[in-house]
Design goal:
Helices cover about 0% and strands about 45% of the residues. By secondary structure, it is an all-beta fold. It is globular, with a radius of gyration of 19 Å.
C-alpha cells in the first residue's frame, strides 16, 4: 500500500510532507535549524523517531507519538565506560546513522547504528540503549574498520530477517557486512565475493564499504548492497556476493538502494560518477532499475535534470512505498515517481540538503 506521508531529514530540521488530492505539501516542521541525520516511523507502534546532530551539543534522540506534533527527547546511546576505539582512545558517539525496529515479535526492540561503529539495542521501546558488545568486540574491528568519508567506521545499515528476529545483518562503513543468527551473541563476516579496490588485498575478509544494505522481503535470502566499489547481490544470505554493476555505467558508484518488497529481482539505485567526483553521472540525473536481479539495468530520466546537475543522493535518501519512490539530494531537490521510477516530478528545489527520506 502506498503511503501518503514523507519524512525528510535535512540539514535544517525534519520536514513532513503529506499528499492531498495528488499534491504534496509540508504539513509539519520539527527540530528547526538542527541537522536531522535520520528520521523514520516504527510501523509497529506508529512512533516517529528523529536522530539529531547538534554539533556543539552532541547527538540527540527524539520521538513523537502523534505524527510529529509533539516530541520528547530520550537518552541517546552512549558507549560504556572503558570502551575504546583504539588503544588509549575512548569511544564517544559522534553520529547517529539510523534507527531500526526489531522483528514483529519484538515490540520493544529497537536498534541504532552509530559512528564510531557501534550497534546499540533497546528492549524497552527506546527508553534506554546498550552497546551490543559482541559486535564491538569482533576481532576484525580494531585492525580492519576505519572511516571512509568520515573520521571513523559507522554502522549505517541494519536488516532484520522477517522470518526470524534473531537473524540480523549489519553493514559497517568501512568494515563490511556482519550476520548474527543467535540474536547478537555471535557475529560472522559475510563479505566473500566483494571487492575493496582501495585495499592492498581487494578480496580481504574485512574492510569493505557497504554504503547501504537491504534484504528482499519476499525472499530474505536475497540481499542487495550499494558498495563503494559497485552494486552487489547475494542469493544465499550473504554467503557469496556477485557484482551486478552495469558495464560501461552508469550503475556502479552510489549510495542508496531500494528493493521491491514483492519481487526479489527488482531494485533501484541512483548512480553517481565516482568516489572522487560525487555528482550525477555526466551531470545528468537518473534513477536505474533492474527487473532481473542485476543482469540488466534501465536508466530512467524523464522529469530529472539532464544538464549542469551536481546532485548526489545519500544512502538513506531513497525510499519506496508501493509503486511510489522518492529521493532527496544534497542540493535540496526532492523528486517523486508514481510509476516505479519511470518518470519523475519535483516536490521542491529549495529544501535544505537532504540526509534521509522515508515514507511514513
Amino acid at each position: 500500500m502506498m503511503s501518503d506521508r514523507l519524512l525528510l531529514g535535512t540539514n535544517k530540521g525534519l520536514l513532513i510532507l503529506e499528499r492531498h488530492n495528488g499534491d504534496w505539501r509540508i504539513t509539519c516542521e520539527a527540530h528547526n535549524a538542527i541537522p536531522v541525520s535520520y528520521a523514520a516511523v516504527d510501523r509497529r507502534s506508529g512512533t516517529l523517531w528523529a536522530c539529531l546532530d547538534h554539533g556543539h551539543w552532541g547527538r540527540k534522540l527524539h520521538r513523537s507519538p502523534d505524527g510529529g506534533q509533539t516530541w520528547r527527547e530520550v537518552p541517546a546511546p552512549a558507549f560504556p565506560e572503558g570502551a575504546e576505539i583504539s588503544e588509549g582512545k575512548p569511544a564517544t558517539v559522534s553520529y547517529l546513522w539510523l534507527i531500526a525496529p526489531g522483528g514483529a515479535d519484538q515490540p520493544e526492540r529497537l536498534y541504532i547504528g552509530t559512528e564510531p561503529g557501534g550497534l546499540f539495542q533497546s528492549d524497552d521501546g527506546g527508553e534506554s540503549f546498550h552497546l551490543v558488545e559482541s559486535l564491538w568486540n569482533h576481532p576484525s574491528r580494531k585492525d580492519f574498520w576505519f572511516g571512509g568519508g568520515r573520521d571513523f567506521a559507522g554502522v549505517c545499515a541494519i536488516a532484520v530477517d522477517p522470518r526470524d528476529s534473531r537473524h540480523v545483518y549489519v553493514g559497517v562503513s568501512v568494515g563490511g557486512v556482519f550476520e548474527t543468527t543467535d540474536g547478537g551473541q555471535t557475529w560472522h563476516g559475510r563479505n566473500r565475493g566483494l571487492s575493496a579496490e582501495y585495499m592492498p588485498n581487494p578480496d580481504a575478509d574485512y574492510g569493505h564499504d557497504p554504503h547501504f544494505l537491504a534484504l528482499s522481503p519476499s525472499n530474505p535470502d536475497v540481499l542487495w548492497q550499494q558498495n563503494h566499489c559497485g552494486v552487489f547481490r547475494s542469493v544465499d544470505g550473504g554467503q557469496q556476493w556477485h557484482k551486478i554493476s552495469q558495464p560501461g555505467g552508469p550503475v556502479n558508484f552510489g549510495f542508496p538502494i531500494a528493493v521491491d518488497p514483492q519481487d526479489e529481482r527488482v531494485a533501484w539505485v541512483v548512480p553517481a560518477t565516482s568516489d572522487e567526483y560525487r555528482v550525477a553521472v555526466k551531470q545528468a540525473l537518473c534513477v536505474s532499475r533492474t527487473d532481473d536481479g542485476g543482469q540488466t539495468w534501465t536508466a530512467f530520466r524523464a522529469g530529472l535534470p539532464q544538464t549542469e546537475c551536481y546532485d548526489l543522493v545519500y544512502r538513506h535518501a531513497l525510499d519506496l512505498s508501493g509503486d511510489t519512490l522518492a529521493f532527496g539530494t544534497t542540493t535540496g531537490n526532492v523528486y517523486l515517481s508514481d510509476d516505479r521510477g519511470e518518470s519523475w516530478r519535483s516536490l521542491g528545489h529549495h529544501f535544505p540538503p537532504v540526509l534521509s527520506v522515508r515514507f511514513a
